[in-house]
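Thread: "does anyone have the structure for this chain?"

Original post by V.I.:
We have the sequence but no experimental structure in hand. Need at least a predicted one for the grant figures.
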Amino acid sequence: MDDVPQTIKSSVKFFRSVGYIGFADLVKSTTDYSVIKLDIESNNDDKVLYDQIVLSANDLIKHGHKTRQRFQGNRINDIGNAIEDVFVQELRKTTLSPELLSKSGYPDMKITDQANQVTYLESKAVSTDWNSSFRSFYYLDGKKIASDARHLLIAWDLIEETPKYWQIKGWKLLDLFHLKVKAKLEFNSSNRDLYQKELIIAEM
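Reply from O.Q.:
Generated one for you, tokens below.
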């Protein structure tokens, strides 16, 4: 146990020195699966995939304008979850087969197209400055990734028209193949770890 402090010190030093790394490299190293670049110029299957995602996103916006649909919620994350559910319904109107994955962790959904290609799609609700330095994308362990795939992200541009009622103004579609991510060392504990009897010195 004497070497534990030195091990921790070395780990902290390593994380501070890592800097930015390629998202594709991170996925490969944590899952053994490859991130495939979307190629809409020379791959017809990719072009169809791209066109149908764009069509679904535009149809969601058009439906919102036509019906004056607004999303209600206290937190932007709640709004994001509601949009995911509606967007999946739009995707199902195309030849794509979307599947919502568990809510926690990357990615949000898996899409299988007619060519049996797999695409992982992350959905983000954005209501702040697009150039903000606020951390908005997280990757932990890739436990939901089960194949080589394209990795895309769709970001919904939201405005709070009235308190707790949000409208989608637009969207951005990203290919994460060239994304750079920064490692962050974090030490944490659960409530079970934290509120142990031997740690509590007073309570009411």
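V.I.: this helps a lot. The longest helix spans residues 44-67.
O.Q.: and The two ends are 36 Å apart (CA to CA).
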